[in-house]
Amino acid sequence: MLKPVDSLLQRDDLWLASQWQQQQGGIATGFEALDRCLCHGGWPDKGVLEVLMATPGAGESLLLQRLLCPGEGQWLLLVCPPYLPYAPAWMQQGIDLANVVCLTDLDRKEQLWAAEQGLASGSCRRVLLWLDALSVSESRRLQLAAERSGSVAVVFLPQEAERDSHPVSLRVRWALETGGATLQILKQRGGWRQPQQRLSVQPQGWHLPKRPPAATLFQGPW
Predict the structure, then answer these.
(1) Residue of 3, 1, 40 whose CA lies nearest to 22
(2) Would you say 38 and 45 are in contact if contact means Cβ atoms under 8 Å apart?
(3) 59 with 181: CB under 8 angstroms?
(4) Rounded CA separation 198/181 (Å)
(5) Cα separation of 13 and 2, whole Å?
(6) Angle at 119 between CA 115 and CA 120, to 5 degrees
(7) Can you state the angle between helices 108-121 and 136-149, rounded to 10 degrees?
(8) How far is CA 147 from CA 36, 49, 116, 125, 142, in A?
(9) Residue range 81-137, pLDDT digits in tens
(10) Rg (CA), the chain
(11) Neighbours of 43 (CB within 10 A)
C-alpha cells in the first residue's frame, strides 16, 4: 500500500521543486549545455535578460550572438555601448548591420527612455542597454514593455548589482577569460539558480580601443 506522500508524488497535477515551472519555447543560445540549464531551453523570447559583468564590453556579442538577429524587418537597438561595435566581426556572426541602430552620448534618463520606447514600439525586437545601476521600478518598467511587445531587452550591469532583486526573466553572471568564458545562471523565472559553467568561445570583435564620439547616431550598413 502506497504511503500518502508517495501517492501525492505520483500525481501529474502537482509541481515538484525538481521540475521546471514552465516549458516554453526559448531562443537557442548556441551552447547546448547552457540550453539544458535554462527552463525555456534557451534565452527567453520576451522580457528582460540581465547580464552582470566585471568589465563592460567583454565579449557580449559572443554570448548573445543568437539574440542579435531579431528577424527580417526588425531593429536591433544599442543604447550607449561602452565601445563602438566592430562591424566586420558582427557581419561574420551573421548580424544584419542594416537593422542596427546605435545611440550614444545620452544621460541616464535618456538611456532608459530610449530603451523603453524602443521596446514599446514593437519595431525593436532586441534592445541592448548598458547601465551602472538599475532600480526595481526601472527594471519592472523595462520588463513590462518587453513582455507587452514580445521583445527582449538585455541590460548589462556591474557585478555589484547582484545584491539587488529585480523582477526580470533571467539574470546571469558573465566573464570572458583566456581561452573561453564562464557563466552562471543567478535567477530565472520558472527555474533555479545553476552552478557556474565554462563556455567555449573565441574572443573577437566587440571592442575597439576608443569610445564612439559624442552626440552620434550609427545606423547600418557601415
Answers:
(1) 40
(2) no
(3) yes
(4) 6
(5) 18
(6) 115
(7) 20
(8) 23, 12, 11, 11, 9
(9) 988 888 888 888 788 888 899 999 999 999 999 999 999 998 899 999 999 999 999
(10) 19
(11) 24
